[in-house]
Amino acid sequence: MVMRYKALLAFTAACALFAGAQAQTWYEQGDAGDLPETAQSTGSGALSDIQGTLDTNDVDMYAIYITDPASFSASTVGGATWDTQLFLFDADGRGIVAEDDTGGLQSTINNANNCIPGPGVYYLAITRYNKDPLGCNDGGLWSSNDNNCPNGPESTSRVASWTTSTTAAGTYTIFLTGVAGANAGDPADCPAFEGWDETANGGGDAGDLPETAQSTSNLVANGIRGAIDSANDVDVYAIYISDPANFSATTVGGTSLDTALWLFDANGKGVVFNEDDPDATTGFQSRIDNRAFCITQPGVYYLAISLFGRRAAGCDGGLIWQASPYRSVRCPDGPESTSRVAGWSGSTSATGRYRIFLTGVSGASAGDPADCPPPAPWDESYHGGGDAGDLPGTAQIVTLPDQTPCQSPVNRIRGDLEADGVDMYVICITDPASFVASTVGSAGFDTQLWLFNCDGTGVAFNDDSTGTQSTLDNSSGCITQSGTYLLAISRYNRDAVDANGSLIWNNSPFTGVRCPDGPGATNPIAGWTGTTSAGGTYQIQLQGAYFVSAQGCEGGGGCEGDVNNDGRVDDADLLEVLFNFGCFGFCGPSDVNEDGIVDDADLLIVLFNFGCGA
Predict the structure, then answer these.
(1) Which residues pair with 128 in a beta bridge?
(2) Facing residues of 305 across strands?
(3) Cα dihedral sign for 114, 119, 123, 127?
(4) Residue where a domain terminates, one of 133, 151, 181
(5) Does the bond joining 325 to the residue before it have cis omega, within 30 degrees of 0?
(6) CATH label of the domain that carries residue 147
(7) pLDDT tens sequence across 494-534
(8) Of all residues in the chain, what percent carry a pLDDT higher than 70?
(9) For tag attachment on the chain, is the N or C end more exposed, with fewer CB atoms within 10 Å?
(10) Dihedral (CA of 369, 370, 371, 377) sign
(11) Is residue 504 a part of any domain in this protein?
């Protein structure tokens, strides 16, 4: 009996030992943190899997113990329906191994590439695709993640933050082998930053022009840290360069963003620029120095950082530097190479933090360079007073007191296109055969040009003529007579519609000038469809276009009796009155004196002014 009882105890103990050795599931408690110091502990004992949920912009990190690197694996294959990424960090928060995709969109990490040095506490993180870890200087720990060791600009740093924003992903299961639970620790913080911080030292967002640049102190000698924190953001800092030969500025190792660095002199004129590191063949960070001898003397300068696609523009809206080549340090070589910077063309949507490493630099106070000279007409803001409207009733009237309507030529229109923006202008065309409007070479985005009658009905349209820029002319015979017209510019995919929401022009073909050919072809414009990001500055180069009177579509070409608004009183106006003679009520422009009837009084006005503007 005693022997049987001892045997039963032994069997029970063995069963308990066996049960204790069974791997278990860890369920996320609340929301796991995104850094080692906020990671979730996972208890004790062997783990078979971790189950949790990833929310918007979320990263879930767990403390685990790897008992044997050779048998370790972590995988979301079969455990998630969305695009996962897995990252492993050591007890100090330094990167160990990472992977994005294993065949499909799920991830698997193991020690196939001998990245895991030995048993111990590690931190396992899961993210949605494109949310990647950054180091203490805001550089990436990995430049690619294919079950490999860190290979980014900050490959030896601890994780300090994460890139980009992501939508909610959903539930996940991470299947594990060679893993036990562990308690999260508290790795050493990143070293304190000793340079110039845009927010802590500068008080907020640095401006994007010399007159709004952030002044700096001698802390800047240890570098600049800041953030591109909104679409189209550019940050400008005042610095002092004492010896041009010793000057350098670089974002290499300081960010995962695709940057560009620009240097302007105390007058705001371009000095030197670089897009992508000239000393490398890969990577999208930037480096400027005086290898091209662009910096000719010591003094106050303005250092600017932007993202790829945002480019410095001069007083007339042209580029100060050409867009390419990317991997060279260049003095100004654009169409406005001698201009001061007046704005920025192109658009960017990415955001993130950066660090600029500097040599040969000390602090400086921002000045107030001389403004650009008044722009040549027509400038949307300077002459028009603000944003041009997008419909006939709000179109900007291209008129000046010293310019004769339908006789004084307007050679260009310059403006700025915001998100979902359309700019419409009232112009005069006296000879349809000579009319040309073009954005080729004068816009940094994909443009569309539109021409409407004053009543809002469509006349002509072009999407692409050279590259993604547009040219309108009368090659298709859409402009049938001289007169006052509405010229509009939009970004690609922002399209004109009638009151029913029908397209006035079909979306394609993209090339060629087309008369209205959509389901709403015969109807006046009532709005625009499609969403677009901001385009930035543009210029519409014009031929055969003229100023109009201050009344725009209502005022004709400046001659009383100019019924058809073509800038002169002639047979065409006489015929308009005669054709509508006797009309009561709303009779349009044929009712020259606007008394509700087309009669002898209107005819006499035309006859009295016959020949005006000829």
Answers:
(1) 84
(2) 235, 261
(3) positive
(4) 181
(5) yes
(6) 2.60.120.380
(7) 999 999 999 999 999 999 999 999 999 999 999 999 999 98
(8) 95
(9) N
(10) negative
(11) yes
Rounded Cα gap, residues 518 and 515, in angstroms: 9
**Is the CB of residue 132 less than 8 Å from the CB of residue 140?**
yes
- Nearest partner of 459 among 431, 481, 438, judged by Cα: 481
In terms of domains, do 539 and 459 share one?
A: yes
Range of lowest pLDDT (130-144, 239-253, 362-376, 400-414): 130-144
Report yes or no on whether pTM surpasses 0.85. Answer: no
Neighbour count for residue 191 (Cβ, 10 Å): 9
Which of 353, 422, 412 shows the shortest CA–CA distance to 383?
A: 412
Instruction: Indicate if 437 and 570 belong to the same structural domain.
Output: no
Query: Are 539 and 575 contained in the same domain?
Result: no
Is 6 a member of any domain?
no
Q: How many residues does the chain have?
A: 614
CB 534 within 8 A of CB 419: yes
| 396 and 526 co-located in one domain | yes
Count of structural domains, the chain: 4
Starting from the edge strand earliest in sequence, which strands make up the sheet with 73-75, in order? 24-27, 47-54, 170-177, 73-75, 108-110
Give the structural domain span for 68: 21-181
Residues 171 and 200 in one domain: no
